[in-house]
Amino acid sequence: MWALLAALVLALSVAACGSDSGGEGSAGGGDRPGDGKPVVRLGTKNFTEQFILGEIYSQALEAAGFKVNKQLNLGSELIAYKALQNGKVDAYPEYTGTALTSFFGVKTADVPRDAEKAYEDTKKGFAEKDITALAPTPFENTYRLGMTKKKAEEIGNPTKISDLSDKASDLSISGFPECKQRQDCLLGVQDAYGLKFKKFVTSEQKYQVLDSGDADVAFIFTTDGDLAGGKYAILDDDKKFFPPYNVTFNVRNAGPTPVSDISINSATLRGISTSDHLPLKIGKLAPGASKLASRKFSGVPSGSAIFIVNGTSTAPINGATLPDNSVAQFAITAPVNGPSAEVRGIELGVQHMFGDTGFGFQANATLVGTNKPYDPLDLTVSGFAVTGLANSANLVAFYDKDGFQARIAANWRDDYLDHFGQQQNNSMFGSEPSFVNATTQIDFSTSYYFTPRFSVYFSGLNLNGATYSTHGRFSEQLLDMVDYGRRFTLGIHFRY
Questions:
Q1: What is the pTM assigned to this prediction?
Q2: Does the domain formed by 2-142+244-494 have CATH 3.40.190.10?
């Protein structure tokens, strides 16, 4: 199912031009349905899957005419949730199991194992905070424990988590920073299965630490593309400990955008994601890199994808007639299959721990390209071009030892073509492009755990005062600029 989500990112990342036998499209230009609606500030948490979900919801909203300001790397679930409550963002995607255990005080063992019931409880919890949780996705991304097949063979080929009962004390386990103190992660697994691992290795690059031998076992996501290669053994949750983790898009009721408007798009997205007529091809980008999925259609070269664009055609509706009794013709704008294009990319990552000092660093870079780029100097046509492709990189230094955690991150994103159709400027050459300018943001966070259930934390976002800005065909043509300023959070966290 995750491969299908990745394909949708490729399919929906264009608001670009195309045509088919049923009508003609434009490069995202012209009037889009819903033009004039307010800006939606859409946030996500700080890992790849959330970035993809953010792009999917963003493209669904943009297809309905909303302008979306994406803030795709807010931080952990607590930071993202606080940003939603405080009005820093208007919406963000969250997992039902995470919301219940991290926000609403539900013990992992008490979370309903029925996905629909878990969503209803999540919806009720958010509603009490004046937040609407939209209909959940039919897929989920839950936890499992995993290890390399080589390591599994060394310890007797365990197939389920309970098989580690007499081995855990000799094994190190890895997970993202918050996992160490989450009831639905390390604490809960150790309690439910009676395990005590030798050491916890903090890392957001779980497969790298498994491959390097820095950890023996890792908390993995069942939707991870790395699992497709067959290199890793997955241990079954034989005690059914992990709760449902379906995705729900959560919208602040006090935001500028009516929830009902966004709900329509969420339902549309859900319908697309459950489509059973989109066969997929999954290809490996590079050794050790993440996988890239693309939609594969009959007659389309391998490695290409047909992009969904807005097309306009004329047709009668329900037999409506004009005053002269002739059949009325309506201009209908709807998603259609557009041209094919190739999207190429590679994701690189490295992480290093300096022994048992607690200090370490990680660096990641994503480089992307396409055979259908946009040339702002070409004024002869306004044709198809792939939008939303941006190179990005981040460098993180961290410390994690004896209950104290600190992290400073520099996140860079290159400029990119966002969409066509500046509302204030449609020239003789067609719909004018809008580019998002390059930006670098520096974030910091720290926490100290006095006990496994009580901690204090502090975070600072955008310490360097980075701004969000867009420009037109040329970089000198500034369209808009938003200064969100520096944001700080200080608090305590207590689990009971």
A1: 0.46
A2: yes
